[in-house]
Amino acid sequence: MNVKDYIRTIADFPHEGIMFRDVTTLFADPRGFRMAIDQMLHPWAGQQIDKVVGLEARGFIIGGAIAHQLSKGFVPIRKKGKLPGQTISQAYQLEYGEAVMEMHEDAIKPSEKVLVVDDLLATGGTAQAGIQLIERVGGEIVGLSFIVDLPELGGRKLLEDRGMNVSVLCEFEGA
User: Fold this and answer.
1) In angstroms, what CA-CA distances link 94 with 4, 34, 128, 133?
2) Is the pTM above the cut of 0.85?
């Protein structure tokens, strides 16, 4: 089996016409979860990484496991209003509106090397907001790692056109 085999698709969630790629089935299987974490780490072997950033919310699960494997710190980037300390904010576009992500302003020090992780890459809006937050505090993005890419939505191309190194474990057609 490969990682894609552990991911279920749920039709019409959260809206009609959406094919939701549910990674919770991957997380629930110990072999599948270990395979995903190991494969997400592989492209970055030998590179200096100081912090792992997870994007809300499934990126926390992946990011925590990757940070543990690397013996590095973990930094969450969360939806506005969820972090208790001094934060910096970044607005970004969603399919149906706008959202704001936040990060503690002291979570990443200037010149620290950062790996950004999340479960799914669609339009790239959330990832771009995370990149902007990290760069504003002087962090350097080593790369971005995702379990699933939805290539038709263009997020990977958007990030790569920005000069980012992007790794994905599998792709699904459609939105």
Assistant:
1) 25, 31, 12, 17
2) yes
